[in-house]
Specification:
Length: 191
């Protein structure tokens, strides 16, 4: 063994540790993107547009279909079909939005996509299921289900579309039951 081996081992260990720390920092960055959505004002007015809007007054819901576009305080949801459940005791109040068909949710430069999304206004929870993908810059995070708790600011990604928070509708995840991702590691400036 040469005298340089301990140095090389220390250098390799330092570089591996640095790489791990940078990867964790990148994951924290993409989680911060989901956390940014967690700061969303769910009491702000909701604007919507679609190719077709059907009011189902007895069921207390509005069905939007075709190029659905729903916005609220900088948060934008786009889907093929959306059902908005509401109450009208005293004043109209949205209870829940369920979107299906190529769902994307964007805020700023962050984007989440999946097969189904449910925004529960009472619980202040957004759940996305089925082929979930989070994008922030070049960083990605993939899984079966994403849950964002707007009250606590806690977000989680599961590998499977099923979990403790139920999502109505048939959802199949094409993934292997694991969470995966890709993160950019900043250059160390030649050091």
């Amino acid at each position: 063994m040469t005298s340089r081996s301990p140095f090389n081992a220390r250098t390799a260990l330092r570089n591996a540790t640095l790489g791990f720390v940078l990867t964790c920092a990148a994951f924290a960055g993409i989680q911060a993107g989901a956390q940014a959505i967690a700061g969303h004002n769910s009491d702000a007015p909701v604007d919507y547009a679609a190719d077709r809007i059907e009011l189902q007054d007895r069921e207390k819901r509005v069905v939007l279909s075709g190029n659905v576009d729903v916005t609220q305080a900088g948060l934008r949801l786009r889907a093929a079909r959306t059902i908005i459940n509401y109450t009208d005791t005293g004043s109209l109040k949205i209870q829940r939005i369920m979107a299906t068909g190529g769902v994307t949710v964007t805020r700023g430069n962050e984007r989440a996509s999946g097969d189904v999304a449910v925004y529960d206004f009472n619980r202040r929870i957004i759940t996305m299921a089925g082929n979930v993908r989070l994008l922030r810059g070049t960083d990605t995070l993939n899984g079966g289900r994403l849950v964002i708790d707007l009250r606590s600011g806690v977000s989680s990604v599961d590998g499977n579309a099923s979990g403790s928070a139920p999502v109505t509708g048939a959802v199949k995840s094409s993934g292997n039951g694991r969470v995966s991702g890709s993160f950019s590691v900043p250059k160390d400036g030649g050091k």
